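User: Can you predict the 3D structure for this chain?
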Amino acid sequence: KKLIGYISMQEIRQTMMDFESLKHLLVAADIVNPNIPVVKEDETLDRVMKLFGKTGLEELPVVSSNGETNIIGTITQRDIIDAYNHQIF
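Assistant: Here is the predicted structure, written as structure tokens:
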């Protein structure tokens, strides 16, 4: 239940080049990127959108605001756009 990182399509693409030789040896921990940005549950949607723009990711983990890395969910760019549209209309 603790966040240790993420695996993006970039890591998967690199692995696929050597898939046949690695498929019985490789586990997720071997390619996980531990430097993942996280969203705290009490952050503003404006800050989250800026984080999406900075990272280029389409989905980010949401963690509790108590400083621990317990994942309580995820948020996507689409979630934020939908929330903005709901408020406007």
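The first helix runs from residue 9 to 16. The helical segments are 9-16, 19-22, 28-31, 45-55, 77-88.
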